[in-house]
Amino acid sequence: MVTQNSNPIQLTKADGIYQLTYFGHPTGYIGPIKVKNRDRHPWRAVSVHGEVKHCYSLESARQWLLAAYH
Q: What pTM does this model have?
């Protein structure tokens, strides 16, 4: 039986920080960069492995976290 929320990739938001999970396991966290930066990367993604990447969009941060998960 397939439920309505059967997607293995879940992005949830709490206190302004997004958590990305894959099959119930955390893959990383995404948060807005609040200081003005020259590169105009408004999002910071941090993987559960300690890697950090600044991204142009929430979607690109989500995709990077999925690619960095191993």
A: 0.83
